[in-house]
Amino acid sequence: MIKLSTMAAMLAACLSTPLAASFATPVAAHDLTPFQEVGSGHVLYEDVSPAGSETINIETYVPQACASKPCPLVIAVHGLGRNAANTRDYWIEAADRHGLLIAAPHFDKDRFPTRLFQQGGVRNEPDRSKWLYAVIERFFDAGLKSGRVSGSTYVLFGHSAGAQFVHRMVMLMPDARFSTAISANAGYYTLPVGKDAAGGFSFPYSLDGTPATDANLKAAFAKPLLIMLGDKDIDPNHPQLNTSKGAEAQGPNRFTRGQNFVAVAAAEAKRLGVASRWREITVPGVAHEQKKMASAAAAALFGGN
Known about the structure:
This protein is of the alpha/beta class. It is 30% helix and 19% strand. It has an 8-stranded mixed sheet, with helices on both faces.
């Protein structure tokens, strides 16, 4: 387990590591280029998602420091409440302090139910370009094309339901160009094993039923993934906590389920004979609070300076 104060130096090199990926070209519809104006804004981005050809609202923020120069990008994924504006706003302080562009896509419930949002649209879909994870990659291409995004990677953050989205994207699309992914306070996990090692449960509780292979997992373990857990996120009766049999098998609360995921992942990396760059970070005194977890993630990544 790693505390926040030790993370900045470890992750500094990760943020600039380029990893190429190739995904389908989005459908051109709206001539709206992201990150053109200082402050809070949004861009209507049209792409081919698991729900079809969809216009997705992306909430954005550009600090004054990035008005005249390209800056690194953080893509933040909302939780079950699907409030992308709040998700963006929780990163504004860090954006101003560190010179970061923020983008928070809005995946509304009507068009993106659980199987398409938290689970990425992976089930029974062999075409990776139709997964929701690929939308993140194509939006990143739009950001690069705008000339406002620096480098060749982005930071990926998700809280709660967004944390489910993030850790599944890491395992199922490890060639995506995130430099570091942060999964904060997920309600339950896709364990990086088959169903026999996951209590008999298939996807979304294990990788059984997905295209994932050992090669996928080896590539995923090579990417920095932070499992951030608030040590007060322990309410077994939280109204948004998944209480299905597959989730309950992972533990009674989010904190315990996160620790279980980290332990299972470490054992699987050992079985595969690879070093894992996945790390657990315990955030003291924090429950199921996205704003505080976003601040903790910024501190871990950028040193809190």
